[in-house]
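tool_call: predict_structure(chain=1)
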Amino acid sequence: MSDWHTDFSALPSPDGLHRGFANALDSAWSPIEGAIAARPNTEQALFFTGHSLGGALALIAAERAARDPAVNARATGVYVFGCPRAGGDAFFNSYTPLFGDSTFRLVHGSDIVATVPPAGLFRHVGRLIQCDSGRLFTSQTPMSDHDNDNPEMAESVEAALKADARDIVETGVINPPIGTRPVAQAARDLLRIFRDHVPDNYFRALSVTIG
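tool_result:
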């Protein structure tokens, strides 16, 4: 329930961040700051990554680590999956010069979480890589420039309906299997816009095998 409270605490913070995400990172920042600062000098590459809420926190943490004098660590890359918008124009303008071209925002199909909070008050950062629902991320999957604010909710709902129709034609069912884990089996009963957000669908789309 704490994740839902974080997700829906969507008023902007004074520095333009999603207030719930900013508060969540504040509560966890001390050990993160210590772990980054304690990295040996020989360990050069630093990556931030996360799924859903974890993706939003990864974005904010990467920007904070680069600007916090106590850390002063610039990420090599930031990879987020099914990530909501983390901030508004102020965050976009602060983040983009640092990591706009080295942040990769992967979205599977019609994943509804990637469409919220609404555009206008908030905006995405990084480069969008979006595969079709039920398909794979490949070297041919298009990648946007760093000023792309898609996906939008209406477009995602439309894409979900088209993918449902496609699956009926191709497989005879509207919700083909995602994986063998219990969470994947349970997710078959969800609407596609929610099913596409399940981590197992991202693992499958990335051709990653999990138990």
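agent: The longest helix spans residues 19-37. Proceeding to next step.
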